[in-house]
Request: fold
Amino acid sequence: MRELIVGSRESKLAMIQTKLVINQLKESGITQPIKIEKIATKGDKILNVALDKVGGTNIFINDLETLLKDKKIDFAVHSMKDLNADMDPQFTIAAVPEREDPRDALISKDHLKLADLAKGAIIGTSSARRSAQIKAIRPDLETQWIRGPIDSRIEQLNNGNFDAIVLAVAGLNRMNLSDEVITEYLEIDEFVPSVAQGALAIQCRADDEEMVQILRGINNPIAEATIRAERYTLSLLDEDDKAPIGVYASLKDNQLTIYVSIASLTGTDLLTARATGTDYKQVAKQVANELVSKGALDVIEQAKQEL
Reply:
């Protein structure tokens, strides 16, 4: 019987996510033994520099893809939002399990909601999108970048380094911290999350037909469809995936709705659009065209230059 080896970042959250996937595979009927190969990626090692300064999101992916290419692991578990759209064709996303809560959450030192934070309060975030959206809502607040695992960021907040921080609800849920720490859930219609936030990508070699078939057993069709729509929408607006863009798609009764927000880094320009339909490419093009007509490409280009 073939032993399966899964590659994972070694952070606490990454290991929780990987073990979650292993449990889902076992529940789907997989009987092969599964071994975890842990790795510290470049993104995990360099914590004193903002993500956009050290190579973007793929710094969490490249090392695991190297292990896949060299056949040292059979599949890898990623946070989907870390995976760029221009994936090497020798790999495939064989499964997108059921998606966690895609929203962002505010965690504040004094349990104050975003609207109630004092003027000049400092919010920690490693995301240009979150920073821009915060400034669009509260231009009097200051944002400063923060890196490190979830528990490290919460510790920095508790130590007084920040007045509040913003984190993904999905990670907090998976670490069973939500009820303990979340001050406020930031709702999607005002605080549109990043593409694929809350979703996992289970990646393997495209030519490993046995592995692809095994992983398809834990694929969630709704998660797969909505993530595909989000990633396609982003590709129409910013192929580099560097600008402060939020994209979220929901699917109900065969109707796909795509929400998009684009903000300047200062938050002074905030463009939003929403469209609904049955064909994801048509819906994506409709919402993208609306944003372009509002001047989105200029806002995106200016933000990328500033970054």
About this structure: The chain has three domains: 4-99+199-219, 104-186, 230-306. The longest strand covers residues 255-263. Residues 230-306 form a domain with the Double Stranded RNA Binding Domain fold (CATH 3.30.160.40). The longest helix spans residues 221-237.
